[in-house]
Description:
The protein is mainly alpha-helical. The protein has one domain (2-20, 29-101). Helices cover 72% and strands 0% of the residues. It is built from four helices and no strands. The protein has helices at residues 2-16, 35-55, 61-69, 71-101. Helix 2 (35-55) packs antiparallel against helix 4 (71-101) and helix 3 (61-69) packs antiparallel against helix 4 (71-101). It is elongated. The relative contact order is 0.20.
Amino acid sequence: MKKTFLLISLFLFVISCATPTVVNVVGPNDSKMSCSQLDVEIAMANKYAEDAKKEKNLGTGTNMAALLFWLPGLYQTSVNVKEAVDAANRRAEHLSKLKIAKNCP
């Protein structure tokens, strides 16, 4: 029982180090959005990408703690940052294609 609790705690600690938000590339209502709504969503996707890139910086509190105490957590954050940036960029690209298909300005 003690060993199980330790493993679960360790797993939760490692997962908590990966903080950037990974967005869904395709939303359920994307095709129903107006041009202005698509613009807002593209801006949000770009903001998610920028926020994720900031998490990669070693100067953040989470990354400093991971560097000092838990190196695998720092690696997991780096992997999660790559996933978050890639997903945000693909979402912005998807929404841009929708804008072109709707002949938005």
